[in-house]
Amino acid sequence: MSNSTGAPRTARSGLIHEILDGAAAAAPGATAVRDPHGPWDYARVAALSHAFARWLTEMNVGRGDRILVLASSRREIVPVLYGASRVGAVLVPLDPGLKEFQLRSIIADSRPSLAIGESEGLQAAAAEARVPTHALDKLWEAVEFFLGETAGPPEVTSADLAIMIYTSGSTAAPKGVMCPHASVVFAASAINEVLGYGSDDVVLCRLPLAFDYGLYQVLLAGLGHAEIVLSGMETDLLLMTRMRERKVTIVPVVPSLGTMLTTLARRNPGATDSVRMITNTGAALSASSIDELRDCFPHARVVRMYGITECKRVTIMPPGEESDRPESVGRPLPGTRVLILDEEGVPLPPYKSGEIAVVGRNVMAGYWQAPEQTERVYRRDASTGDVWMRTGDYGSLDDDGYLYFEGRRDDMFKRKGTRMSTVEIEAAALDIPGVRAAAVLPPANGHDLALFVESDRSPQEVLREMARRLEPAKVPGICKAVARMPLTRNGKNARDRLALMLEGGES
């Protein structure tokens, strides 16, 4: 068991919009958000959030009503987030890449009061369900009509839902993770207590705001009175230009983005000098990728983190300890605990592998309209009142409470009698010089353990190198080279597409 000490400072009543109000009161003229259309300061974002809240009131949208938002990462999403909070509505951020089939499923499940977005799929799915839909540009003209007005104090509490984030639906219908104000504000505040976003920081956010890693950058910037630069609408080639122009200090990355940044940084020496911190979650960076980032961003600490949507963040390696315990993903958030459980749910001692469980106020409220799934994952300790959850992921703790992540439930499998994880096999592949990206598919559907690599080296060379790094049972039986690794919108390996390639259904 690991305990962190203390509890993070949070918004006054645990409501999301109080993060913005605190920033607007302390630094009204500081830049809050910037996109290709320009900057807005905190005073402007606060005014627009009030105007959006007033517009929602006119639309009879209020406490508990769901609002779907399917749009690219634009500055308007920031006051939409805070404005929905003001009236107690529940923001449901969606990936602009979702197909009409997926949107129909989410709309049927969430039963929204309105939808915001321009995609034809959203328009069709919402019309079929008779959900009013508003294009963001036209909506914003209406919102600005209410500038200077407020919606009045809502009857919203910190226990009310603020956000609902739908998990991937690649293998089943998407599940909506219910995120109350209190849990979101606590998680953001605890993360910031460790990472220390401040008023001198400029955050380059390439991540979609539909991805909770991206969305929380807005909250972290607000807590630190920092500037967030939304670059998702721009081409990759402009990233270094934005870093140089805005003197970017913080960059959150997933592995694919980290690889791209190192490539661009080598072509743009000096553009990275202002970066003080690179954070990573979503999928772990390999040791070689971390080394390359340190080489290309000489003044930056590379901060490893681990988390899942159901509790936002589990652990963070403190920035000052980035070179210590290189295999670890850090310590639990302030005010939380991490347990390692055996198959019977009994806590295990240090260095024993088992399922990772989390205890604390960062634990969300379960899955929307799915009580059986919620009961399988979430628990409340009757004696202490603590809420805890089983992550379905595996790892171990050391004597000092640092977590060592071994793999997600779907990553763990047995081959030739040996238990292994896709994570360790991918890490071995990424250690091979010349391998830029790697993804592993466990044995299934008649195929052996398969490795896909983005590399100039031949599959035979890669397998020979794998045999030098892993015991025989863990060396893949299949290796295929791809020109470019297929990725999800969140920058993770698209294993469904790789499976199709393996079966010959896609090239």
From TrEMBL:
Q: Which residue ranges does the record assign to the AMP-dependent synthetase/ligase domain? A: 23-368
Pinpoint the AMP-binding enzyme C-terminal domain residues.
Answer: 424-492
Question: Which InterPro entries does the entry mention?
Answer: AMP-bd_C (IPR025110), AMP-bd_C_sf (IPR045851), AMP-dep_synth/lig_dom (IPR000873), ANL_N_sf (IPR042099), ATP-dep_AMP-bd_enzyme (IPR050237)
Protein's name according to its UniProt entry: AMP-binding protein
Q: What's the source species' lineage?
A: Bacteria, Bacillati, Actinomycetota, Actinomycetes, Streptosporangiales
